[in-house]
Design a protein that fits this description.
The chain is α+β, with helices and mostly antiparallel strands. The protein contains 1 helix and 5 strands. A hairpin with a 4-residue loop joins strand 3 and strand 4. It is rod-shaped. The relative contact order is 0.08.
Length: 107
């Protein structure tokens, strides 16, 4: 990490001022820290509102995904043993139609 007064050194080795696009916000303290250059600052009220809204939406999306995954796991746990039993019995011929014998032919 660089000191706060140093510029970020770009890919070509030339000094490029950091635009602080990649930063993390601590919502408890309101402190932001840039991942690229290490500079930190306090977030404005608008930035805090945006971060709180983002985290709220992310939590809702993750809860929805977790709920979908739980139902998927539940139905798999119910369906899989039944499908396995059906498959094994099908391999043994339990669900086949009876073969037509000579007695069933009408002529």
């Amino acid at each position: 990490m660089h000191d706060d007064d140093e510029d970020y050194i770009g890919c070509d080795g030339e000094d490029v001022p950091c635009d602080h696009d990649d930063y993390d916000t601590d919502i408890l303290t309101g402190r932001c820290m840039c991942w690229r250059c290490g500079e930190s600052w306090y977030a404005t009220a608008a930035e805090m509102d945006r971060e709180l809204r983002f985290q709220s939406e992310y939590a809702e999306i993750m809860e929805r995904e977790d709920r979908r995954q739980r139902w998927s796991d539940f139905w798999w746990a119910v369906r899989h043993p039944l499908a396995t039993i059906h498959w094994e019995l099908s391999k043994r011929g339990w669900f086949r139609k009876p073969a037509v014998s000579d007695d069933d032919i009408p002529f």
